[in-house]
Design brief:
This protein is mainly alpha-helical and 442 residues long. It folds into two domains: 85 residues, Cytochrome b5-like heme/steroid binding domain (Flavocytochrome B2, Chain A, domain 1), CATH 3.10.120.10; 338 residues, no CATH class. The protein has 17 helices and seven strands. A five-stranded mixed beta sheet has the order 1-5-4-3-2. It is globular. It catalyses: (8Z,11Z,14Z,17Z)-eicosatetraenoyl-CoA + 2 Fe(II)-[cytochrome b5] + O2 + 2 H(+) = (5Z,8Z,11Z,14Z,17Z)-eicosapentaenoyl-CoA + 2 Fe(III)-[cytochrome b5] + 2 H2O.
Length: 442
């Protein structure tokens, strides 16, 4: 079937070609990208730059079957078809399997059936009251924090309490913008996009486009080096079991990695949001001329300084927001890393959606506090499998996911909150020990 490429001009919109997986896999470079969705072959080389989710996330599936990822990210596939149709250049040959490489067809079929069951049970329908109440408690926290200082003054104890309340509001706003960013609140995507800009911009001072382009890569290829930006540690840390050995063999020592479980407390939680993310967000908005997101972001800082400069002065207000970001950063880092950092982190293995997500994620036990504290990301497995599902339904689909994993012998990890947090430090120490052994002896 190798002659399929001669039947149509790639990117012409004529869907007459017949291709093998080998041919599709050969088109996986930066300037030549094909992918497969439901056995149809698409040339996305030129269109990838216009992809709403970003160039990188769709490019991560170049030369691969993207059927499961496409279903996971797009709540309205029919709408997206009008963009896909002109890109179709053919389909897989009848003799070719529907899945590429060594993916398990039975797992893929069973997961497809589970998704259909969840849709039929209404688990992708959001409850508006849930998200309205969540927004109300964020606004209430911010209002009470300001009123407390305005009424009783700016002594140290009240300032500390105000900081904790504002950091709580910021963290909870982070979970809310996450809901809108994943298109899990409204049926119409444009309402999700608009409220996402409001939540991440006006409530948090960040950028929706920066978040989208970064976070969707993480979901598309979690814990995969050079594809998931969340495991790009800028050589400050080595993670997983593969990278430390590679660094050790190459005698790479940018940091004393055997001590990373100790300096993590000084570098990771305190600095991620107030330093690294803040610089990255501002640089991204300005360098990409993303003026809309910049205006949304500035609206947050305008509101904040109008409220607090009369109470603390300019320098005091800057110190207060810096301390709030410091507290928020601890909350964010510990919650987001306990589900991923202790899991398998490696190079691309081309696994099916279920296996790939379960390899990279684990859950934390359910409780009212855990749900609230983590924004329901204690159900990280279900969130990664169904990123557009409203979070208040994760606990309903979880038993079905667990049963499917048991059927196919895929580990489904559930931990206590304390175990999840301590596993972050344990995994960093294990990776550091692997690096030291390879550095000294290999």
């Amino acid at each position: 079937m190798g002659g399929g490429g001669q039947l149509t001009e790639p990117g012409s919109g004529r869907a007459g070609g017949v291709y093998t997986w080998e041919e599709v896999q050969s088109h996986s470079s930066r300037n030549d990208q094909w992918l497969v969705i439901d056995r149809k072959v698409y040339n996305i080389t030129q269109w990838a730059k216009r992809h709403p989710g970003g160039f990188r996330v769709i490019s991560h599936y170049a030369g691969e079957d993207a059927t499961e990822a496409f279903a996971a990210f797009h709540p309205n596939p029919a709408f997206v078809q009008k963009f896909l149709k002109p890109l179709q250049i053919g389909e897989l040959a009848a003799s070719e399997p529907s899945q590429d490489r060594n993916k398990n067809a039975a797992i893929i079929q069973d997961f497809h059936a589970l998704r259909a069951q969840a849709e039929s049970e209404g688990l992708f329908r959001a409850r508006p009251l849930f998200f309205c109440l969540h927004l109300c408690h964020i606004v209430l926290l911010e209002a009470l924090a300001w009123l407390m200082i305005w009424h009783w003054g700016t002594n140290w104890m009240l300032t500390l309490l105000c900081s904790v309340m504002l950091a709580t509001a910021q963290s909870q706003a982070g979970w809310l913008q996450h809901d809108f960013g994943h298109l899990s609140v409204f049926k119409k995507s444009r309402w999700n996009h608009l409220l996402h800009k409001f939540a991440i911009g006006h409530l948090k001072g960040a950028s929706a486009n920066w978040w989208n382009h970064r976070h969707f890569q993480h979901h598309a290829k979690p814990n995969v080096f050079r594809k998931d930006p969340d495991v790009n540690m800028l050589s400050i840390f080595v993670v997983g079991a593969t990278q430390p050995v590679e660094y050790g063999i190459k005698k790479i020592k940018h940091m004393p990695y055997h001590r990373q479980h100790q300096y993590f407390f000084l570098v990771g939680p305190p600095l991620l949001i107030p330093v690294f993310f803040h610089i990255q967000i501002m640089h991204t908005m300005i360098s990409r001329h993303d003026w809309v997101d910049l205006v949304w972001s500035m609206s947050y800082y305008l509101r904040y300084f109008c409220c607090y400069i009369p109470l603390y002065g300019l320098l005091g207000s800057v110190a207060l927001i810096s301390f709030v970001r410091f507290l928020e950063s601890h909350w964010f880092v510990w919650v987001t890393q306990m589900n991923h950092l202790p899991m398998d982190i490696d190079h691309e293995k081309h696994q099916d959606w279920l296996t790939m997500q379960l390899r990279a994620t684990c859950n934390i036990e359910q409780s009212f506090f855990n749900d609230w504290f983590s924004g329901h990301l204690n159900f990280q497995i279900e969130h990664h499998l169904f990123p557009t599902m409203p979070r208040h339904n994760y606990h309903l689909v979880a038993p079905h996911v667990r049963a499917l994993c048991e059927k196919h012998g895929i580990p489904y990890q559930m931990k206590t909150m304390w175990q999840g947090l301590t596993d972050i430090v344990r995994s960093l120490k294990n990776s550091g020990d692997l690096w030291l052994d390879a550095y000294l002896h290999k």
